[in-house]
Design the sequence.
């Protein structure tokens, strides 16, 4: 049974009503952030940290350490293990 089949017609109607409410109340504009304010700004012109690379001795491990510093452990240990990368500017 698929996820959509597990819900009753009334449940699905509630989901559609909620979606309609959210869509009707979207803001007219989004706040603009400077490149320095963006969470992912550290990836612009990215290069591996030589100290971390020396400590780990491996480019993959150094990149992993950098990603953990940016996204935190929770990104890897909760949800579906997928961290979406989207363009924010």
Sequence:
């Amino acid at each position: 049974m698929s996820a959509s089949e597990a819900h009753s017609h009334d449940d699905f109607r509630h989901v559609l009503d909620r979606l309609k409410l959210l869509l009707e109340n979207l803001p007219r504009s989004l706040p603009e952030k400077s490149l320095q304010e963006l969470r992912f700004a550290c990836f612009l012109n990215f290069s591996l940290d030589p100290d971390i690379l020396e400590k780990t001795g491996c480019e993959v491990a150094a990149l992993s350490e950098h990603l953990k510093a940016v996204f935190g452990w929770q990104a890897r240990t909760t949800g579906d293990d997928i961290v979406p990368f989207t363009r924010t500017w």
